[in-house]
Amino acid sequence: MTGHLLTAREVADMLGVGADWIYSETRAGRIPHVKLGRYRRYRRESIDAWLLELEAGASVSGTNRGGTARTARPTAPRK
Predict the structure, then answer these.
(1) Residue 77's Cα: distance from chain center in Å?
(2) N or C: which end of the chain has fewer CB within 10 A?
(3) Secondary structure (H, E, C), the chain
(4) Are 17 and 76 in contact (CB under 8 A)?
(5) Cβ-based neighbours of 21, under 8 Å, separated by 6 or more
(6) What is the pLDDT of residue 40?
(7) Does 7 score more than 60 pLDDT?
(8) CB 41 within 8 A of CB 1
């Protein structure tokens, strides 16, 4: 284990999404996290590995109309 644990806001900044989206995806169990009492923290290594899994799944799932592989991107939070 290296580095410090990240907050949801730091992960949001890293991914270019809103912190609300990170909180929502964490509650749904879709983002790897560490539960520390009432707090949730994230390891950069786990987030990087999770992103690689998303990318691998997207490239396996097929291509879009243009013939290029799809890339997984976090979606914006719903309002």
Answers:
(1) 13
(2) C
(3) CCCCCECHHHHHHHHCCCHHHHHHHHHCCCCCCEEECCEEEECHHHHHHHHHHHHHHHHHCCECCCCCECCCCCCCCCC
(4) yes
(5) 12, 74, 75, 76, 77
(6) 96
(7) yes
(8) no
Three-class DSSP category at 78: coil
67 phi-psi bin (left φ>0, alpha ψ -120 to 50, beta other): left
The pTM assigned to this predicted structure is 0.69
Check: CB of residue 65 under 8 Å from CB of residue 10: no
Quote the tokens at residue 48: 């990087």
CA distances to 14, 54, 55, 65, 71 from 58, rounded to whole Å, are 20, 6, 5, 14, 6
Q: Give residue 76's identity as a one-letter amino acid code.
A: A
Residue spans of the domains in the chain: they are 8-60
